[in-house]
């Protein structure tokens, strides 16, 4: 088993990089705070006898040699970047849980057959650079490196430039890297495990998700002199679309969700009828055909709204991550590991996207979930119990060792 | 009459301070661009033999002596600050039209009885520091100097600090300054004069206007894992309130307007259900009792919306500028001046707020409107015809001279 106390200490220790007054973390990818936690991660892995490197997308790899140097590694990983008002567990539990596995192997001197590799993926959150899971997406061949490097944040800074600025643009091309298996430990980020009193979620897949960018163009005009009937108010049209996103999600069953999370209003002055609005839409459902139906329904509503309001529309689907079904052998390894400890568990589909969703395209993959309080995530108050986190890392350890015997 | 060509040249010349690629101006109050246009203004007035000073709110005064030094000045004025995406005429026509009047008096060596004073008011737009007309409000005793100096912009910068930073925190206390009369020339910013083929609007008053600040508090949560029914989505509630503002305005007759112009969404990340939204509301009507009825109606709707959505509400009325009726003698001076030129004219009530609305509290006051293309204002495409602007300045000149004889 892993050293749960050391794991918890690592979680608290790394939480200082970008800590917020409300007890959360603001550690957007490729910022100074990200650079600091990367340096900490590299030092911690090196101290456990691993070789640490990073690739051209800034993904960090800590490798512990195995008996058979010719075999591809069994990998673990997740991410250390956070949302603008993120918590201390999302992604972090997976990386530091992997570190706890490496520590257990190191302490016992256990020799595996495969090399064991722990990965810290760049820009999983998608909060600074859309879409989410960008660097694992390049690793898996979903995006080209060039398109990823050219993504810009909302201030117009290029991913490639931000990566170089923190010193993490590595020479090794991202992705030319065979992987025997990938296991990702993560908090559930939803309410199910806690509600049912389960310690472990055996993750069978990830739901489908799509992101859209919408720009509405109306006409800036004076709030005091422009009659209501002569306005082209882009924000009023955006308000109707926000309502439509909610309506569409509610209409497609309890598993459908739809969210407008990012919105920019222009010129954003109290006495100017807004002439332009930019916003994002996020649609998800475990069944891709339902996601498609939601999109069709929503597009029709949006077109009616902008036509009636005399507003110009540009709408683009900027991300499509179809539903993923994880590898049966990896799932079996997680199930066996969970059973060996006797942890209460259930199968679960992930509502959140994870790097595992892209790794699943190129390697046998699965995930392990542990509960988080109230199912709350992407919130500074996000929390998880030390015993659950340790249990998750124990399952990760035994699942990796099980896969090593295959 | 004034030199219309010189006036037009001044408009084009000052438009370089903060000029935008789309032909507008971005010259927010107390910025470097504002400092530049202030320096230009002071130099231009000094060249016409005026004494230029500024008070503790940064209001600039250019004084041309009269025959009787004991008399209070007859004043003209408006503002040189703009919206973030403003035009070349809003406010500017009033200040530079006043400069054209000073130039005409200077060129002819005409001696008035009263001193004549041209004023450039600080922060008329309210775009950077709310509310609008802040410095003329202090001048008129509506706001205390301390409360004005402590206003902050959306980046938290204090008005007083921004004022000191551009070097315009004068020693003379704002407001201890008797005024014989105040005339403000302005573009209409609405569609009426143009539609009716009138050159001059004889402004009889300003409609009532109120500003509110609303903060909605929900709960940040994960866009992929939080079921629709478990969300506390502050942006969705804000969307419903934006719709309600429009509904309330439409329900109170063709003269009622309601606008949400400023909105800030938090944490503003694509995959986070928004936990907090801040926005402004602007309600206006020529009749204060209707403004009150609109407020009552809107508050009831907002309370229903937030209660149903489980969202926390903080709503504050941050500005109340009641309807203003201008001085009959000043209006008579403008009417006589307009008739003397034979300009087509009509009486009009201003839909926009103006420094004149506050000056009217402490001095006989009125305004002169000229048409603007399509009634468009608070827009980079705002435009006015050189002949109309010159006509407005001619009326300003004769109205001032008429008041000087009273
Ligand atoms: N795990 C996680 O929160 N990932 C962000 C990608 C998503 O939006 O689901
Ligand atoms: N004239 C003008 O646009 N003033 C700004 C104040 C208002 O919102 O009406």
UniProtKB/TrEMBL annotation, chains A, B:
- Which cofactor(s) does the record list? Zn(2+)
Peptidase M20 dimerisation domain: residues covered: 205-304
UniProt-annotated binding residues for Zn(2+) 1: 79, 90, 186
Which spans are transmembrane here?
A: none
Q: Does the keyword Flavoprotein feature in the UniProt annotation? A: no
Q: Which InterPro entries match?
A: Amidase_Cbmase, Bact_exopeptidase_dim_dom, Peptidase_M20, Peptidase_M20_dimer
Q: Which residues bind Zn(2+) 2?
A: 90, 125, 378
State the similarity comment.
Answer: Belongs to the peptidase M20 family.
Quote the cofactor binding remark: Binds 2 Zn(2+) ions per subunit.
Question: What is this protein's name?
Answer: Zn-dependent hydrolase
Q: Name one GO molecular function term.
A: hydrolase activity, acting on carbon-nitrogen (but not peptide) bonds, in linear amidines
Q: Where is this region: Disordered?
A: 63-82
Q: Name the keywords, alphabetized.
A: Hydrolase, Metal-binding, Zinc
């Amino acid at each position: 088993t892993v050293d749960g106390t050391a794991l918890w200490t690592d979680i608290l220790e790394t939480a200082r990089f970008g800590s917020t007054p409300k007890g959360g973390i603001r550690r957007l990818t490729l910022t100074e705070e990200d650079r600091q936690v990367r340096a900490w991660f590299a030092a911690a892995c090196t101290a456990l006898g691993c070789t640490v490197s990073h690739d051209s997308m800034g993904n960090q790899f800590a490798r512990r040699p195995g008996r058979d140097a010719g075999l591809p590694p069994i990998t673990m990983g997740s991410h250390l970047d956070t949302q603008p008002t993120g918590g201390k567990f999302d992604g972090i539990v997976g990386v530091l849980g992997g570190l706890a596995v490496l520590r257990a192997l190191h302490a016992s001197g256990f020799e595996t057959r495969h090399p064991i590799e722990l990965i810290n993926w760049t820009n999983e959150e998608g909060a600074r650079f859309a879409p989410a899971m960008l660097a694992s997406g390049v690793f898996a061949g979903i995006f080209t490196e060039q398109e990823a490097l050219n993504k810009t944040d909302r201030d117009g800074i290029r991913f490639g430039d931000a990566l170089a600025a923190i010193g993490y643009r590595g020479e090794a091309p991202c992705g030319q890297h065979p992987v025997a298996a990938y296991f990702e430990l993560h908090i559930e980020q939803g309410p199910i495990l806690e509600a049912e009193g389960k310690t472990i979620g055996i993750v069978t897949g990830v739901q489908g998700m799509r992101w859209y960018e919408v720009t509405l163009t109306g006409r800036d005009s004076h709030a005091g002199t422009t009659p209501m009937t002569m306005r082209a108010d882009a924000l009023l049209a955006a308000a109707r679309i926000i309502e439509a996103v909610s309506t569409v999600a509610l209409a497609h069953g309890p598993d459908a969700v739809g969210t407008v999370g990012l919105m920019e209003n222009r010129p954003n002055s109290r006495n100017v009828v807004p002439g332009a609005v930019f916003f994002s839409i996020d649609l998800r459902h475990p069944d891709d055909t339902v996601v498609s139906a939601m999109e069709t329904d929503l597009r029709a509503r949006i077109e009616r709204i902008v036509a009636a309001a005399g507003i110009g529309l540009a709408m683009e689907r900027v991300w499509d991550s179809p539903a993923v079904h994880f590898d049966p052998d990896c799932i079996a390894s997680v199930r066996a590991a969970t059973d060996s400890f006797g942890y209460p568990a259930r199968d679960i589909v992930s509502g959140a996207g994870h790097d595992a969703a892209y790794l699943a395209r190129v390697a046998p993959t699965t995930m392990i979930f542990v509960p988080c309080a109230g199912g709350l995530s992407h919130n500074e108050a996000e929390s998880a119990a030390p015993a659950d986190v340790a249990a998750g890392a124990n399952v990760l350890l035994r699942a990796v060792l099980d896969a090593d015997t295959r």
